[in-house]
From TrEMBL:
GO BP field: cartilage development; cell differentiation; ossification; regulation of bone mineralization
Origin: domain of life: Eukaryota
GO CC annotations, alphabetized: extracellular matrix; extracellular region
Protein name: Matrix Gla protein
Chain positions with 4-carboxyglutamate modification: 68, 72, 75
Amino acid sequence: MRTLILLTLLAALMVTAFCYESHESMESHEFVNPFINRRNANDFMRPQPRRNLIVQERIRERNKTPQERQREICEDYNPCERYAMRHGYSAAYKRYFGQGAS
């Protein structure tokens, strides 16, 4: 009988110890639903107004890097483009148009 009382007391103590909700375990329950719907998840992907896109595209065209300009020049000249396929655009530009940075 004494063993039965001790086992019951031990079981009650274990249930109390393992089922106790501390402050740390409650942090995960702060959000009722951790998931959001698709529309709200993709809010940052909404397109900008059309007028703003045209302005940004024009700014991007004005601010091209020298490598991009060289690549475009090389793409317009067929032998340079073929050489670039094998050796790279910088080597092709140097071969056909010299060292000048334009």
